[in-house]
Specification:
Blueprint lengths: L21 E7 L4 E8 L6 H25 L12 E6 L5 H5 L4 H10 L2 E4 L4 E6 L2 H15 L9 E10 L2 E7 L2 E6 H6 L18 E9 L5 E5 H8 L16 H33 L1
Helix pairs in contact: 3-4
Length: 283
């Protein structure tokens, strides 16, 4: 600004900063401005001057974008090894579940994934991680708690054994969602051999790839090892199924009905014979 006249210069180097009265930085896309930064040595700047500066900055921005597009038509994918911060939105009433009692859940997520997690009061969660794998692992765990996925038949999971019983093992698929791997399915992993102690072949903490075979009316999940599914699909007979007693055939049931019916008929004949005998005696 000199002699009542304003002149706006455009560059991308900042060489005029020391000599100018205003430093005005504008960043954005073809359609919108995403950031502004203004330093001025003057007591005030007319709105018309600022408006003209914005239009001048837009023309310069579009020129730069055209040059960039000639070199690369779209942004490249971020390296999976690059640090990042990602955002997840959850319902406000789910914040407590993500944090857990005394912070147990959120601390567990951070320890297992290596990510740093910050939760805002409006349900916005910021996940900071040194690589993409850690960030995605944390995001998946948080979504499983706050935006749960309902498992369906045929889906496969890498589950963790959380409990063993005499009839099988319970496998954790998602936070708060377990399924039963019945002992008959475990036997198939061991050639159909009898298993007297489940803990001798599968232990708490073991990881196992499983497929959901059935979801009952109460939402209980029945699981089968993926290895068993694939080997049976290839035609292998793995054994391990229960040997249950056969039900009686219809023919045996018919014989029983005929036997009981015959007894009733004979009883009726006998009753009628006695009745006729008494009538004869009275006459």
């Amino acid at each position: 600004h000199e002699g009542g006249e304003y002149v706006t210069l455009t560059d991308i180097l900042g060489a005029e900063d020391a000599f100018g009265d205003m430093d005005f930085k504008v960043a954005g896309t073809r359609d919108v401005i995403t950031a502004l930064q203004l330093d001025t040595k003057l007591d005030g700047i007319p709105a018309s001057v600022l408006g003209a500066a914005l239009m001048q900055a837009r023309a310069a921005r579009l020129t730069i974008l055209d040059v960039m597009r000639e070199a690369i038509d779209e942004p490249g994918e971020m390296s999976e090894f690059a640090p990042r911060i990602i955002t997840v939105r959850i319902p406000v009433d789910k914040i407590g579940e993500v944090i857990g009692p005394k912070g147990k859940m959120i601390n567990s997520i951070q320890e297992e994934t290596g990510a740093e997690i910050t939760i805002e009061d409006d349900g916005t969660i910021y996940i900071g991680a040194t690589d993409g794998t850690s960030a995605e692992a944390a995001r998946s765990t948080i979504n499983a708690i706050a935006n749960p996925h309902i498992p369906e038949v045929g889906e496969r999971f890498l589950g963790t054994v959380v409990k063993t019983t005499t009839f099988g093992a319970f496998i954790s698929l998602l936070p708060g969602k377990d399924g039963l791997l019945h002992i008959t399915q475990i036997r198939k992993l061991h050639g159909g051999a009898r298993i007297d102690d489940v803990d001798s072949v599968i232990k708490v903490g073991d990881k196992i790839q499983v497929e959901i075979r059935e979801v009952d009316d109460r939402g209980k999940l029945s699981l089968v090892p993926v290895e068993v599914v694939e080997r049976e699909a290839a035609g292998e007979d793995l054994g391990g199924d229960d040997h249950r007693p056969r039900e009686r055939s219809d023919r045996s049931g018919d014989r029983g009905e005929r036997g009981r019916g015959g007894d009733r008929d004979r009883g009726s004949d006998h009753h009628r014979t006695r009745q006729r005998h008494r009538e004869s005696g009275n006459s």
